[in-house]
Amino acid sequence: MAKTKKKSDHTGTTVAVNRRARYDYQIEDTLEAGMMLVGTEVKSLRSGKASIQEAYASEENGAFYLINANIPEYGAANRFNHEPKRPRKLLVHKKELTKMIGLCRRDGYTIVPLSLYFNDRGIAKINLGFARGKKSVDKRHTEKERDWKRQQARIIRDRG
């Protein structure tokens, strides 16, 4: 798969990060997408209370939805609140949608959310990663590399 220009260089306010995704999956490509949200969801996101740890993107009826993302109810909205774990439609261009559908139907690929943030204009965006699951051997190799880089940094710092 060809690497495309990274769109993950956002400068807005980060709401939630899925740190476990980079450990469990080999991220091959990323994509920025918008979400269809109701007003109380946006207010809840602005307070910084969201979780995308168990979330994933799935295709249903020719559109992509973010499944299992937890945006808790907004406290000040009495009876007009939203459902915390409802499926949320992802907004992407037609070309990106066909690419996502093609990758999602291939064996071993999953679309996982990497981060949820507000961009410069104050619009909620989600950074999605096209991922392939890692085996436990790959996870151990990743841990070894991370530990070695940490030791290198320590050695360089102590010598300098």
UniProtKB/TrEMBL annotation:
Highest taxon above the source species: Bacteria
What biological function has been recorded for the protein in this entry? Required for rescue of stalled ribosomes mediated by trans-translation. Binds to transfer-messenger RNA (tmRNA), required for stable association of tmRNA with ribosomes. tmRNA and SmpB together mimic tRNA shape, replacing the anticodon stem-loop with SmpB. tmRNA is encoded by the ssrA gene; the 2 termini fold to resemble tRNA(Ala) and it encodes a 'tag peptide', a short internal open reading frame. During trans-translation Ala-aminoacylated tmRNA acts like a tRNA, entering the A-site of stalled ribosomes, displacing the stalled mRNA.
Species of the source:
Kiloniella laminariae
Query: Where in or outside the cell?
Result: Cytoplasm
For the region Disordered, give the residue spans.
135-160
Q: Which family does it belong to?
A: Belongs to the SmpB family.
Q: PANTHER family per the record? A: SSRA-BINDING PROTEIN, TMRNA-BINDING COMPONENT OF TRANS-TRANSLATION TAGGING COMPLEX
- Quick one: where is this thing mainly located? cytoplasm
- Tell me the protein's name: SsrA-binding protein
Keyword list, A-Z = Cytoplasm, RNA-binding
Supply the gene name. Answer: smpB
Q: Which InterPro entries match?
A: SmpB, SsrA-bd_prot, SsrA-bd_prot_CS
